[in-house]
Amino acid sequence: EVDSCFRGITYEIIGETQEQPYIQIGKMKMSIEEAEKIWSSPLTSVFPTKTYAEKINIDVDCKKASENKRVYSAKNKIAQPTVFLPIFPGTNGEYEAEKAFKNAGGKVETMIFKNRNARDIEASMEQIATSIRNAQILMLPGGMSTGDEPGGSAKFIVNIFKNSIVADAVMELLQNRDGLILGLGNGFQALMKLGLIPCGEIKTLQENSATITQNSLGRYVSTMAATKVISNCSPWLAGTQIGDTHIVPISTGEGRVIATQEQVQDWFANGQIVTQYVDFQAKPTMELPYNPTGSYYAIEGLTSPDGRVFGKIGHSERIGRDISKNIPGKKDQKIFESGIQYFK
Predict the structure, then answer these.
(1) Whose CB has fewer CB within 10 Å in the chain, the N or C terminal residue?
(2) Closest C-alpha to 310, from 204, 210, 179, 153
(3) Range with the poorest average pLDDT among 7-11, 117-121, 189-193, 197-201
């Protein structure tokens, strides 16, 4: 087989693959686990790869979520729903998000938020409100809005959406027009800090409100992680089945969902926790590297009570035929197709 593949090319065989998890060179034999430990240990004090995993019982009975399965369909049907995608200073996921929605059959309107002076800011907020009122879907893409400053992620976006004209447009979309909202990465952070997730409305957070904060490693993480669908009680997850496992890109410095046990129990009961980080046995875990952010209860994706507002840390828009082709696993969660299909 090798001869046929490299016919006419000068080559030399330097090794062979095998099923056993070890590397052998001559008489030297080393397990993959040992080799990885030796390779990563010199810089662990600077770039830690392990952290203390909090002992939290995260076993979930998915029966409740499956019993709550609903058929989602908008009252007002539209042949080509409009997706509004605002671009803030520091946003960097707009191209992939726009492409994903267009490939799914949606019409995408983008708008760059201008902040050179007070007049620009006021005009941009008015334009955001108008665009939301003309759209069926609001999408907040990933990035680092204003460099995650001051003192935390998504604060700039949150302040914009708390402005009364923008907030009124958002609530009108949800309450009167069966609209949908999606936030990925930085967008999910904004939805949590606005209260749209998990509450379904813009509200002032309390001291004990759930939030998204710095990763347990204390640094930015870029990796691929396995997540499992444990509830599809959302229009955004209509194309999935409970138990489906996907490999998704994680790219964040602040992706750790934290909440009280009582809050999480309510979310589980309502089917609002929709995706969790899982290990090789598809079991939810707090352990690194499977749970790369250290998110409580292995939460990766969360919705509003009615499922129409959906946020997740993983960048499900970053998929394609030749993207991460060396990493096995199912990557397309059909999120964008499901959002568009909801209106048809």
Answers:
(1) N
(2) 179
(3) 7-11
